[in-house]
Amino acid sequence: MHLQRQPSPTPPRGAEPFLRKRLAFLSFWDKIWRRVSQRTASPGPRALTPPSPAQSRSPPPAQRPSPRPARRPSPPPAQRPSPPQSPELRSAPPAQLFRALYDFTARCPEELSVTRGDRLYALKEEGDYIFARRLSSPPSTGLVPINHVAKATPEMLSDQPWYFCEINRTQAQQLLLSPANAPGAFLIRPSESSLGDYSLSVRAQAKVCHYRISTAPGGSLYLQEGRLFPSLQSLLAYYKANWKLIQNPLLQPCVPQEKPGGRALPEAHPAQHSCPLCQGSGWQGTELPSLQRPPAQDKWERPRSEFVLGKKLGEGYFGQVWEGLWQGSVPVAVKTMKSANMKMADLAKEIEALKTLRHERLIRLYAVCSDGEPVYIVMELMCKGSLQSYLGSPEGQALSLPLLLSFTCQVAEGMGYLEEQRVVHRDLAARNVLVGNDLTCKVADFGLARLLKDDVYSPSSGFKIPVKWTAPEAANYRVFTQKSDIWSFGILLYEIFTFGQCPYEGMSNQETLRQISRGYRLPCPAACPAEVYTLMLRCWKDSPEERPTFAMLWEKLGTMHRRLHLALL
Known about the structure:
By secondary structure, the chain is an alpha+beta fold. Helix content is 24%, strand content 18%. The protein starts with 14 loop residues before the first helix and ends with a helix.
């Protein structure tokens, strides 16, 4: 007879505490009594820890792709995991701040699209995803692959005297080499070439040295391979004590530029206004005061009584531009446009689209006033006016080649953003690029041509199309694309290196189109490097498909600018 082995009887539950306490060294109890934590525990919260460099699915720092020209390095290929359902997500510790390392486009409603550099609060975590809230505009929540993010530095950088958040390489050099700063002065700023990283700029006698501070996949920071730091403060403390590793001592934070009255300019807002309307208003900087910020989206339409127009700043193909005051204190630029020439039915839709375009190289759109005649488009004010007028001024005529190249890079960067957003400018020219007191350039009037009626913006109408800046296919057939903007950018390059000279001078519009169709191209300006002229000619290719992209132009011009700058050190 086959005997079936019976399982050993389990001792009574009441004996467990007694035996475990007095005979704790025996592992036998774990065989007959499973621990409560193992028997009843559920998959509760676990710490949300970024992957270490060895475990990370992201490329190591030394191999991270360069952001130029696309400025969007791709994450490593991986199998697409199915996003977990919200009820199964495990809670993460509160206030976990992360930064997106790569672009990610949502593939289903549960996922969240992010752009490289976005700051996120991680709310929950499960497997290959985090459930996060995006802090940048527009705020939203959703799932993001964990190999696309890294833990952000928790310190409040804006409170640090050595951190300058809106300053570029050229401005850093000018500031550190000013009389107020001695050798050993230093600052940290966001990297221009790698979004999410930083640059350390140090004055060394009569020159400035720059060091890249990179972000490791786990969120740590490093200046040299093998030396990781949890924050910029700890990194600075180390290199202050071990300055020989970078061959330059870090003695004191950079002293900000001061106004004539002795008041330091805020580091976070280097572009300052000095126009008469700004003086005495109690407002400094490019940001609006807290009580006078641009209206919320549901209050974008503003009454005409809130604006007072001052002097006329200029006139373009879309209307006149006036210096003005908003509610009696905020300096703004107001573009006036005749409603008879506009598609008024599309105004709200187009303005809604335009106000979502936010980039440091684009003029900010603040408000619109469409009740009455003319229509007001209220924008950010740049006190040096248009690039065209500035280049023709005595100050502009004395600009050096590095500064001219800097202008080209800034415009290419702004147009590159519009290119990514699938926005066609239609009227890119030096007159529609505005200059601030710190020589910051911003593209204006982007997309406004779409507000004009079709029979107005055409060669056959009485409206003067800017033929000399317009690609042949756009001037002849009204085919406006990103490639027609590239043609216009080539003309803008010609304007910059001729210090504002009109292209095709002495030719009529008809003669210009005729000569272009025969293969004529503008000659190389005397102040223009041969490499830049080569880019101009590529912008003026007959076939739009053969013209470069703005991302490529930004990369090429940026490389030339950096190479020239290093040669002058």
